[in-house]
Amino acid sequence: MGLKAYIDDSGGTDLNQHKYFVLAGLLANDERWAEFTTAWQAALVEPPGAAYLKMSEAGVLRKEFSMRKGWTSELRDQRIYKLTEIIRENAIFRLSVCVDKKAFRDHISSIKLKNPAPAAGNPYFLAFHKLVLGLPMLQAMNLGTSRPDAAVEFIFDEQGATGKYANEAWERIKTQLLPNMRPAGIPDFLPLLSRTPRYCSEKDEIPLQAADLLAWYMRKHASNNHSLIVQPHSNLARLFEIPGQDTLYDLSAILDLRRDILPLT
User: Fold this and answer.
1) How far is the C-alpha of 129 from the C-alpha of 236, rounded, in Å?
2) Backbone angles phi, psi at 9, to 5 degrees
3) Structural contact between residues 33 and 237, judged by C-beta atoms closer than 8 angstroms
4) I need a surface site. Which of 59, 93, 190, 206 has the fewest CB within 10 A?
5) Does residue 100 register a pLDDT over 80?
6) Distances (CA, A) of 136 to 14, 102, 193
């Protein structure tokens, strides 16, 4: 039964907007995703009804969650609670990468590389590399398998030109980076990168809407915890019950990364 990870972003890649950029997603097998999709669509169409969920719109009662359609803040919150439960019942793993965009702009995108990859100064690609390498590495270490039939298919929300550059990065990872890099104690997980990522609309691939919900909450949580320790929103706290891996590139982590990159300049 194939494994699929659906990934979406929140916060945008404009380094002058929002403090954090987040890529986040959820993993399940085909059977669970089929059950998820049936339950998700049934929950969405309950009156007042919505054709899809996009948290940036639902959060301010716009478009599918507009007050003209009969939505209120209370009804929206009740529906998102129900949708969160559907995620919790079906996803088997969650993952996220959160990037402090100011730190990235000041200390990473400002580095002058000899042969920079296209859009190397975009925080999307830092998060992309961490996700597509981190999950197969965990599989190889914890499950003890690197069989190609265990490879996860990554499905990302549409990204236009960024998606093209990301797939070029995927090929570089497979053909240039991993064959020359074998971290100590980690099995060869190159066979787990046999499936090229796809970029799809969240209206066509329904689980991308769940990834959007997770990414939105993760970004809000990171922003709320920038200067104070704040408990996660109750919906996010329930999603944290799903086993997962969360990576935060705060200023300290960004400076560590910069030290690794500088010898390459």
Assistant:
1) 24
2) -120, 165
3) no
4) 59
5) yes
6) 29, 29, 7
